[in-house]
């Protein structure tokens, strides 16, 4: 049960969660698909997460005995994070030794790739041209139908947008994780065992509370935006 909870929390908090869970469960093909989707093209802006994705893909390929490609991904991961420490609870000893060997044998290549990642992109100077006058149009009220405070941000109400983003994000995450854990406790017959029933009941209550709280915050955000936002100027429509 604890493993299921940890896996679901990781999946909810990081884009790498599903790939980590697939790798830990031994589902290497799914882990490879998840990781290649994140890396080709790169969809991770955080360099630490990007380095971890390359190393996790390297571990997946290493387990599949695709060693040349595993070596390439290890080089990329070490170039992004030269001080990366592999978790022995996640990675097997033979892969940790493999990465240490790659770090020694390809040190110059890793250093060169790290310098390329740090190299700033030089943009050409902007061409001098006559100013272009752009008519300013107010943001549509339809943005208020998007959750997580998007509508308030679009209309310049950053404080309310931040409160709604945090509140709705937290209640949504609590509801999703609670539902996932409750479902994972079900047996093959769709029922809970006598031992897991109290825990499942608590997570079902947490799921419902989180779902109702999210719905209430969403409704508040829509109503607040629709009632407080000034109507668009009809001359600009």
CATH architecture of the largest domain: Alpha Horseshoe
Record field, number of beta strands: 0
Structural class by SSE content? mainly alpha
Shape annotation:
flat
Distance between the termini: 56 Å
The SSE string, one letter per element, is HHHHHHHHHH
Helix content estimate: 55-70%
Overall average residue pLDDT: 81
CATH topology of the largest domain: Serine Threonine Protein Phosphatase 5, Tetratricopeptide repeat
Indicate the radius of gyration in whole angstroms.
24 Å
Number of discrete domains: 2
CATH class of the largest domain: Mainly Alpha
How many strands, what sense, and barrel or not for the largest sheet? Answer: none
Q: Tally the helices.
A: 10
Task: Give the secondary structure arrangement, pairings included.
Layout: H1 2-13, H2 17-24, H3 28-39, H4 47-63, H5 67-80, H6 93-105, H7 107-118, H8 150-154, H9 158-184, H10 197-228
Helix pairs in contact: 1-2, 1-9, 2-3, 3-4, 4-5, 5-6, 5-7, 9-10
What do you see in this structure?
- This protein is an all-alpha fold.
- It has 2 domains: 2-118, Alpha Horseshoe (Serine Threonine Protein Phosphatase 5, Tetratricopeptide repeat); 141-236.
- 64% of the residues lie in helices and 0% in strands.
- The chain is built from 10 helices and no strands.
- The chain has helices at 2-13, 17-24, 28-39, 47-63, 67-80, 93-105, 107-118, 150-154, 158-184, 197-228.
- The longest helix has 32 residues, at 197-228.
- Keywords: Membrane, Transmembrane, Transmembrane helix.
